[in-house]
Automatic annotation (TrEMBL):
A Gene Ontology biological process term: alanyl-tRNA aminoacylation
Organism name: Dyella dinghuensis
Chief location category: cytoplasm
Catalytic activity of the protein: tRNA(Ala) + L-alanine + ATP = L-alanyl-tRNA(Ala) + AMP + diphosphate
Similarity comment text for this entry: Belongs to the class-II aminoacyl-tRNA synthetase family.
Summary of the function given for this chain in its UniProt record: Catalyzes the attachment of alanine to tRNA(Ala) in a two-step reaction: alanine is first activated by ATP to form Ala-AMP and then transferred to the acceptor end of tRNA(Ala). Also edits incorrectly charged Ser-tRNA(Ala) and Gly-tRNA(Ala) via its editing domain.
Domain notes: Consists of three domains; the N-terminal catalytic domain, the editing domain and the C-terminal C-Ala domain. The editing domain removes incorrectly charged amino acids, while the C-Ala domain, along with tRNA(Ala), serves as a bridge to cooperatively bring together the editing and aminoacylation centers thus stimulating deacylation of misacylated tRNAs.
Gene designation per UniProt: alaS
The protein's name: Alanine--tRNA ligase
Alanyl-transfer RNA synthetases family profile domain ranges (all copies): 1-471
Top-level lineage group: Bacteria
Alphabetized UniProt keyword annotations: Aminoacyl-tRNA synthetase, ATP-binding, Coiled coil, Cytoplasm, Ligase, Metal-binding, Nucleotide-binding, Protein biosynthesis, RNA-binding, tRNA-binding, Zinc
């Protein structure tokens, strides 16, 4: 089953169960200062859970574009290291706003997976929140999942809601206990079942999380009940596609294979399983959709997350031997893969290409030199890159510190983060002192020091083509 067909199969199933199909919202949350990016399907419904917004329907389903590259949910450092994590991914979700609750949520999920999509039930494991006997009994007695494949996830830290089976979008807001469905990819892959000491492996991969939204968490941590208990579910489209296409890694599914093939051509790489190709294929999705949703590379906030992801991708290209620009050329195959499901992507192809190309040319000027500096520093620093060197790479060569840490990690090294922060603070202090003598308001030091003064090559073209998305 192609990824595109899985999207439709999911929506068709829930449409038939009286769910209203809603469009994906933007990666930039409409008006939620607690959140950097849309990290799950429920984000656009947050106020509905809290009771301050009413919708004309009580059941909904969608395919939501998500980004986990900052804030509470951040998987950037897992990309290229696990079979199952992306920065950008699509989350299939169904919701009940005060309508059905645990029994139907579980029944729908089980029926879709085992009867419609025909997954072998014996490959599926489930977890429940450790005190949730109701969910346990529905799985065990009504769905017939044997006790040996139901795991109660307790909490080890002694805090009532510290464990994984209590879902939270952010430090505040709607939350609740959840039950999750895992797929066993087989004994040839390392990793233990959920709840076991080696659960972080990639053998048992979590595919679907059913959250029973019951509480609103206040900034002081206290929980108050929501006006009505709700259901919020999220299933990773790429993980489900991997299962249905009989491959282990998300990166082996049809959608990614196309992107990886193009990345291999552009970087002249023979080994299609090369980790850098996976990172590049992941990052082109995140970067393109961020730009579609109105984010442009900058030195702060969301724009800085985008810049960091782009620069990581460019560094992987560089590792593969690329010395010119290549990353923006990945937009076209991405549009071929995802432009039908996301017409807004197809419509902005030229704009996205231009924005990426501009950033690529800018960083291209310092990447090579910065890599040489990194090598010199690494050769004389032992196991830890000193903070002041990480700062120099940041300040002079435009290497975000997480990029330096990523390069270091590949070589078994670490970065002295505290030292980096200290150099950063000293720089701020110097800038503050200097600005006291400046008559005119100067750019903040961090901005001014990040590379050369900005010359945004594509500005005119960009604003002409896409002024509406630049927000
Ligand atoms: P994991 O434990 O594997 O990191 P999670 O518990 O953080 O996943 P949830 O927050 O429960 O994930 O999100 C719901 C679903 O979204 C997951 O069951 C999974 O299928 C999918 N998902 C979560 N994070 C990612 C990611 N980084 N890349 C791809 N799919 C993801
Ligand atoms: Mg996670
Ligand atoms: Mg999990
Ligand atoms: Mg989960």
């Amino acid at each position: 089953m192609k990824t595109a067909d899985i999207r439709s199969a999911f929506l068709d199933y829930f449409r038939a169960k009286d769910h209203t199909i809603v469009p994906s919202s933007s990666l930039v949350p409409a008006s939620d200062p607690t959140l950097l990016f849309t990290n799950s399907g429920m984000v656009q419904f947050k106020n509905v859970f809290l009771g301050s917004e009413k919708l004309p329907y009580v059941r909904a389903a969608d395919v939501q574009r998500c980004l986990r590259a900052g804030g509470k949910h951040n998987d950037l450092d897992s990309v290229g290291y696990t079979a199952r994590h992306h920065t950008f991914f699509e989350m299939l979700g169904n919701w009940s706003f005060g309508d059905y609750f645990k029994r139907d949520a579980i029944r729908y999920a089980w029926e879709l997976l085992t009867s419609v999509l025909k997954l072998a039930p014996e490959k599926l494991w489930v977890t429940v929140y450790h005190t949730d006997d109701e969910a346990y009994d529905i799985w065990n007695k009504e769905m017939g999942v044997p006790a040996e494949r139901i795991v109660r996830i307790g909490d080890n830290k002694g805090e009532p809601f510290a464990s994984d089976n209590f879902w939270q979008m952010a430090d505040t807001g709607p939350c609740g206990p959840c039950t999750e469905i895992f797929y066993d990819h087989g004994p040839e892959i390392t990793g233990g079942p959920p709840g076991s000491p080696d659960e972080d492996g990639d053998r048992y991969i979590e595919i679907w999380n059913l959250v029973f939204m019951q509480f609103d968490r206040a900034p002081d941590g206290t929980l108050s009940p929501l006006p009505a208990p709700c259901v919020d579910t999220g299933m990773g489209l790429e993980r489900l596609a991997a299962v249905l296409q009989h491959v282990h890694s998300n990166y082996e599914i049809d959608l990614f294979q196309h992107l990886i093939k193009v990345a291999a051509e552009l970087t002249n790489t023979k080994d299609i399983a090369n980790k850098s190709l996976r990172v590049i294929a992941d990052h082109i999705r995140a970067c393109s959709f961020l730009i579609v949703d109105g984010v442009l590379p900058s030195n702060e906030g969301r724009g800085y997350v985008l810049r960091r992801i782009i620069r990581r991708a460019l560094r992987h290209g560089w590792m593969l031997g690329v010395r010119g620009d290549f990353f923006w050329k990945m937009v076209k195959p991405l549009v071929e893969e995802m432009g039908v499901a996301y017409p807004e992507l197809a419509a902005k192809q030229a704009f996205v290409e231009e924005a990426l190309r501009t950033e690529e040319q800018r960083f291209g000027e310092t990447l090579e030199h910065g890599m040489r500096v990194f090598d010199e520093v690494a050769s004389k620093s032992g196991r830890t890159i000193p903070g002041e060197d990480a700062f120099r790479l940041y300040d002079t060569y435009g290497f975000p510190v997480d990029l330096t840490a990523d390069i270091a990690r590949e070589r078994g090294l670490t970065v002295d983060m505290a030292g980096f922060e200290q150099s950063m603070a000293q720089q701020r202090e110097r800038a503050r002192a200097a600005s006291r003598f400046e008559a005119k308001g100067q750019m903040p030091a961090e901005l001014a020091s990040q590379l050369k003064p900005t010359e945004f090559l594509g500005y005119h073209t960009l604003s002409a083509q896409g002024s509406k998305v630049v927000g």
